[in-house]
Amino acid sequence: MRRKLTKYAAPLLIMLMMVMLSGCSTNMMVLDPKGPVGADQRDLIYIVTILCAIIMVPVILLTAWIVWRYRDTKDNKAKYMPTWSHSALAETIWWGIPIIIIGIIGVFTVKYTYALEPSKPLDSDKKPLVIEATSLDWKWLFTYPEQDIATVNYLYIPEDRPIEFHLTSDAPMNSFWIPQLGGQIYTMSGMSMKLNLQADEPGVYYGSGANFSGEHFADMRFEVTATSDEEFNQWVDKIKAVPDALTLEGYEKLAEPASSPVQSFNSFPEGLFNKIVNKYVVDKPAHHHGE
C-alpha cells in the first residue's frame, strides 16, 4: 500500500502545482510586451530560462533514470561497482558546463542591466512626455506638468513616444508596475525615482502597485490607455473641460488612507510633486534618482 502511494504521489503533486500556478500568471503579461523596455526584459527572461534549462533538464532526466535503473529489485541487471568513487571526465562535465553557463548568464545580465537602467532615456526622435506618479493609501495620483492636468487611478499616454515617469510616495513604500511596458520600480517617501517606458502600439494596459501596502492594497490598480497623438490631445482637452481642480486642500483630503474611484482634475497646484517629495525631508534636499 505504501509503495502505491509513493508511486502516485509525485505525479499528483506536479499536477496540483501546475493547476495552482496557472491562476497566478496574470495572463503571462510580461511575455507579451508592447514596448521596447518590456521586449528587452522578455528576451532576458527567455535567454536565462533556456540557459538554465540546459543544466536542469538533463539533471532531472538523469535523476529519474538513475532512480529507475538502480532500483532495488531482484531482477535488476544494473552493473554493481561497490569500489567506484571517482571519474575525472564525469566531474569535468558536471562542474564545467554549469560554470560556463553561469558565466554566459552573467555576461547577458550585465549587458541588459546597463541597457535597461530605469532612468536611461529611450532612443527616440520624439520628446518624452513627463508624468509624475505618486503612490498614496490606496490609490495612484498622476500629474501631467506640461498639460497641467491630473488623474487618479488611470493614465492616458501617446503611443510610440517615450514616457518619462517621475515617481514618489506620500504613503508606505509601494512599487509602480505596468507589466507589458516594463519592470517595476519602487516609490518611496522623500525620493524621486525616474522610469522611462514606451508603448509601441495603441491599447489598454494593466497597471498596479506591486508592493503590499495594507488593507486596500488590491485597489491600487490602474489602466494605461495608449492612443495616437491626436486622440491624446483630444483627451487632454476633455480633461481641461472638467469642472474640478485639484487644490492643496483637495490633495490633503485625497492623501487620506482610503480607496478612490477614477477621478480627473483640470489643474493642480504648481510644484505639487516637489512639495510631496520634500514633505519628509529635514535640513537637506531630497534625493532624485537618475537626475
From TrEMBL:
<dbReference type="InterPro" id="IPR006332">
    <property type="entry name" value="QoxA"/>
</dbReference>
<keyword id="KW-0813">Transport</keyword>
<keyword id="KW-0564">Palmitate</keyword>
<dbReference type="Pfam" id="PF06481">
    <property type="entry name" value="COX_ARM"/>
</dbReference>
<keyword id="KW-0679">Respiratory chain</keyword>
<dbReference type="InterPro" id="IPR010514">
    <property type="entry name" value="COX_ARM"/>
</dbReference>
<protein>
    <recommendedName>
        <fullName>Quinol oxidase subunit 2</fullName>
        <ecNumber>1.10.3.-</ecNumber>
    </recommendedName>
</protein>
<keyword id="KW-1133">Transmembrane helix</keyword>
<comment type="function">
    <text>Catalyzes quinol oxidation with the concomitant reduction of oxygen to water. Subunit II transfers the electrons from a quinol to the binuclear center of the catalytic subunit I.</text>
</comment>
<comment type="similarity">
    <text>Belongs to the cytochrome c oxidase subunit 2 family.</text>
</comment>
<keyword id="KW-0812">Transmembrane</keyword>
<keyword id="KW-1003">Cell membrane</keyword>
<dbReference type="InterPro" id="IPR008972">
    <property type="entry name" value="Cupredoxin"/>
</dbReference>
<keyword id="KW-0249">Electron transport</keyword>
<dbReference type="InterPro" id="IPR036257">
    <property type="entry name" value="Cyt_c_oxidase_su2_TM_sf"/>
</dbReference>
<feature type="transmembrane region" description="Helical">
    <location>
        <begin position="44"/>
        <end position="68"/>
    </location>
</feature>
<dbReference type="InterPro" id="IPR011759">
    <property type="entry name" value="Cyt_c_oxidase_su2_TM_dom"/>
</dbReference>
<feature type="transmembrane region" description="Helical">
    <location>
        <begin position="12"/>
        <end position="32"/>
    </location>
</feature>
<dbReference type="InterPro" id="IPR045187">
    <property type="entry name" value="CcO_II"/>
</dbReference>
<dbReference type="InterPro" id="IPR034227">
    <property type="entry name" value="CuRO_UO_II"/>
</dbReference>
<keyword id="KW-0449">Lipoprotein</keyword>
<dbReference type="Pfam" id="PF00116">
    <property type="entry name" value="COX2"/>
</dbReference>
<dbReference type="InterPro" id="IPR002429">
    <property type="entry name" value="CcO_II-like_C"/>
</dbReference>
<dbReference type="InterPro" id="IPR006333">
    <property type="entry name" value="Cyt_o_ubiquinol_oxidase_su2"/>
</dbReference>
<feature type="domain" description="Cytochrome oxidase subunit II copper A binding">
    <location>
        <begin position="126"/>
        <end position="238"/>
    </location>
</feature>
<keyword id="KW-0472">Membrane</keyword>
<keyword id="KW-0560">Oxidoreductase</keyword>
<feature type="domain" description="Cytochrome oxidase subunit II transmembrane region profile">
    <location>
        <begin position="22"/>
        <end position="120"/>
    </location>
</feature>
<keyword id="KW-0732">Signal</keyword>
<feature type="transmembrane region" description="Helical">
    <location>
        <begin position="88"/>
        <end position="110"/>
    </location>
</feature>
